[in-house]
Amino acid sequence: MLNFRKQIPTIMTPEEILDKAFKRAVKIDKEGDSKFDMVKKKSVARITATGDIIATLLVKYNRSFPSVNKREGFMIELMCVLADMDELKQALSKLEWAAVKVGQLRKGYIAKCKDAKNMNELDSARKEYYGRMSSVVNRLEKDLAVLAAAREKFRTIPMVDENTPTIVIAGFPNVGKSQLVERISTAKPEIAPYPFTTQGIGVGHFTSGWRKFQVIDTPGLLDRPLEDRNQIELQAILALKYLGDIIVFILDPSETAGYTMEQQLNLLASVRQNFEGIPIIEVENKVDILCTDSGRIKISAKENIGTDVLVEELIKHLRQLEKEEFAMQPKE
After folding, report:
1. How many other C-beta atoms lie within 10 A of the C-beta of residue 150?
2. Boundary (domain end) residue, out of 93, 121, 154
């Protein structure tokens, strides 16, 4: 599970990077057989330190971002909505180049310092290195800004686990989606900010034996016909297709949520059409207000009626999916 809040560190500006490197280097001191020998050893150590600090930091930034070469998957889909992936890829490439360049400069100027015959040659080599190394870092100003902006946007991506069997809850607002997530989760769901709606999504979990299952509520995403969505919203919804193993579509036959059954069934048809291939379990909520004679699973999330039956049905479906996936794996 990718944790954008922890994996991507704060991206510093060129000035901050250089300041960090120089502050550490200036503390380095060396002894020598003579003043010239001492200054030479100190120069070599400080060039080594600044080069190592900067190159290591740039490599760390580069590796902390998810691969930008992939073009599918939940995280990648959301990243594509939030940032210009080509621009991000170019910025990461620039950092990779800069890290290599700083390493080359460090190696070359360490050799120059070691070969210096007098103090003037030594000072000249050291100053020239600092100037060229600073120039390389300063050229990254725009690229570091791109990474910093992308980091802040990626931090809005909700914490979900792509490897955990996932149930996506869909339906109109106020039909009881969030309440159901709270009922069937082992703990109060984490309400995570979502970059495509003013509301947050609820992410909860429950366990059965050693198995862990993930439940995702989708307010603001799957609560109106997909044909009414803009491109950004549609791509966000597409991302859910990578997560959803089962969709639970909540209906409110009492219509106290403010939507007619006709409207709700039309939305169900839209979800079914756009999430083709993902099993959909139809559930009627608010059985404490109105219980129909349909064949759908009946629950009351508010009164906690029938939720255990729903969980058993979900576990049965998920285990069956696991068996089918296992059977499809190539045998050695």
Report:
1. 24
2. 154
Contact 51, 105 (CB under 8 A): yes
Sequence letter at residue 207? T
Torsion angle, CA of 93/107/50/155, rounded to 10 degrees?
A: 20
Report the chain's C-alpha Rg in angstroms. 28
Residue 203 near residue 214, CB atoms below 8 Å: yes
Strand arrangement of the beta sheet that strand 297-298 belongs to: 190-193, 200-208, 211-217, 166-170, 244-251, 280-284, 297-298
Among 44, 25, 27, CA closest to 36: 44
Q: Is the backbone of residue 73 left (phi > 0), alpha (psi -120 to 50) or beta?
A: left
Model confidence over 23-32: pLDDT tens digits? Answer: 999 999 998 8
| Residue of 100, 122, 97, 99 lying closest to 111 (CA atoms) | 122
CATH at residue 39: 1.20.120.1190
Coil, strand or helix: which one is 145?
Answer: helix
At 72-108, the pLDDT tens digits run 567 777 777 777 888 999 999 999 999 999 999 999 9
Number of domains in the chain: 2
211: which residues sit within 8 A by CB, 6+ positions away?
A: 165, 315, 318, 319
